[in-house]
Structures are given as C-alpha cells and as structure tokens.
Amino acid sequence: MVRLGVNVDHVATVRQARGVPEPDPLEAALLAQRAGADSIIVHLREDRRHIQDRDVRLLRKKVKRLNLEMAVTEEILKIACRIKPDQATLVPEKRQELTTEGGLDVTGNLRKISQAVKRLKKKDIMVSLFIDPDLKQVKTSTKTGAQMVELHTGCYAEAKSKKKKGKELTRISRAAKEARELGLAVSAGHGLTYRNVPRIVKIPEIEELNIGHNIIARAVMVGMKQAVKEMLNLIKRRR
Ligand code: PXP
User: Fold this and answer.
1) pLDDT tens digits, residue range 148-157?
2) Given 66, 128, 189, 228, which is the most exposed site by the fewest CB atoms within 10 A?
3) How far is the CA of 210 from the centre of ligand 1 (A)?
4) What is the CATH number of the domain that holds 155?
5) Given ligand 1 and candidates 39, 41, 93, 194, which is best to mutate, with the most ligand atoms within 8 Å of its CB?
6) How far, in Å, is the centroid of ligand 1 from the Cα of 91?
C-alpha cells in the first residue's frame, strides 16, 4: 500500500494572510490524520511565510508522524535537531520562489548535505532528499547516508503533451528503480493532483506520496457548502 503524506502549509498560508489564528494547520493536520493520512508534512521556510516555529512544535506533540521539509541551513538544522521530527526532507529553497523549484543538487553539494544528514540521523531523524528523477542525483544520494529520496514529480505534473508526460513518467520510473536497487526508500511528490496521481501510483518502487496544494484546494471546495450552511443557520436563528 502506498502511504500518503499530507502537506498542510497552505492552511497556514491562509491564516498568515489575515494574521489571525484561523485556519489552524494543526487542526487541519489532525483531520487529515483522522481521514487516514500516514504522515503530516510542513515546510518551515526561512522567511516563515506560512508555517511558524510554534506550528512545528505543536505538530510534533500532536501528530503521529511528522515530516519536516527544510533547507540545509544552520538555523533550520538547529531547529530540526531540537524538535526532532520523525523525518526530515531536505529541499532547496530560494527566497523568491512560490514553491520549491527543482530538486536538491546533491552532486554539487555532497559535503554539505552529508554533514546535515549525519547531524539529523544522530538525533534519530530519518532523512529524505528531494531530488529530480535524475540517475546521477540518485546515485550520489546513496553517498550522503540518507535513507530515502523523494522524486520530484513537478515536470511530470506540468507536462502539457501526452508525449512529454510519458517521457517524464519514464524518468521517474527509472529513477525509482535505481534508487530502490541502491537500497534507498522512494517517495514522490510535487504538483500531484487527483487527475495525475493514478499513473504515479502504478510505479511499484514508490512507497509514499507527498501531496499538499491540490488536497487543500479540494478541501476548500468540498467544505464550502457545509461552511455556508453553518453560517446561514446562525444568521437565520437570530431573526
Ligand atoms: N514534496 C516537497 C519536497 C515539496 O517541497 C512540496 C511542496 O511543499 C510537496 C511535496 C507538495 O507539493 P504540492 O503542494 O504541489 O502537492
């Protein structure tokens, strides 16, 4: 069975837009967990645009399995080692990006990444590296000591033509196979939706999918009717 990790960053995005306590990513995480999510993912970005330090501390206490997405910086590494999530997923981070763009360049940053992996593993944190489905990056990932790679599905998700989609799927499939053969656990994520996920699920080596935006987007829509009904009930009762 493929496991599902639900990323609740964008619940915090809505909250931060107003600077009020609601919606609460912890509440969303607990609902996701109750619905069957195997893990909860948050990305504590350096600019704290959505998830805040307090969110991570509370989530750590309340959710069954916490996967912290994080950049390889001293500040965030210290926080991760203190909070000790079940898993840390190392990602590249650029200040201006809307979301994580591209995978980690493990080959170009082998020393830095290996040192980060060592520090996290010392605290019993499982480490995953978010990489492009590229055989060279997969091979180098094994040298870092990380136990898992998360294959970036963004190019597959964004491919417009059938041909390009097929090509991207093959890249992911090959990278997954290589990673598994080299002893790494394999997950995948980024840009996955209710429409494009079925073909990814068919790749046998992928044991976990990490999905955020599209689930949060769907949650807004499936919850809208209920939310409006509840408000109407209150308004109507007052007259
Ligand atoms: N995996 C990683 C490493 C990510 O950075 C993100 C985005 O935060 C996701 C998965 C989820 O991507 P999406 O929000 O597009 O589902």
Assistant:
1) 999 999 999 9
2) 228
3) 6
4) 3.20.20.70
5) 41
6) 10
